[in-house]
Amino acid sequence: MKIYLVRHGETDWNRECRLQGQSDTVLNEIGIELAEITAKELKDTKFDMIYSSPLRRAYMTAEIFNRGRELEILTDKRLLEINFGEREGHRIPGRDDDDSNPIYNFEFRTEAYNPPEGGESFDDVFARTADFWDKEIIPLEGKCENILIIGHGCMNRTIINRLLDNPIGDFWNIKLDNCAVSIIDITDGKSTVLEASHKYYSRDNDRFRLPAGTAAIYG
Fold this sequence. Notes:
By secondary structure, the chain is an alpha/beta fold. The chain is 28% helix and 16% strand. It has one domain: 3-Layer(aba) Sandwich (Rossmann fold).
């Protein structure tokens, strides 16, 4: 069984370098186009099931992938992006910013990250995505051949990093741009990451190029 784990398309908050978390943003024009490009590349892959985060930017991406398939899109709260609490909507800090900002450690010293008021820790997100994977996905082996999951930048990385057994300090070493696809094989209950990140477009394309200094790696 193969799992295609996809990050949602671009949003205005990605382009503006703002923390999205569980704020319910939507795809922008480019985000829709990126999802369409990626969906076209995977059009010959027969998906048996589609799961999505309940947030609209993920669900809109799932709908684009579902064109011509007419599958039920199953939403699951365990696939929500990490919650940034009171910092949602704020600008993502740069390396030269004040390290008193709790999000600074989120980006640059992940092992020291303490979430802001109302937010989630890395451990919180690892726990809920592991629960989803182990209880929802693993039991589908033998029943399905290909499963599509549409999620988020941080949330998707918790699945991949757990399967690779990467230390938390290496969390951001996996580059997941918008609509990046990760492919995971499950055989005899064992999950193996075949491809951690692949995208079917280039940010060197002027249309898709992000403003200087924009990471667009979160949310």
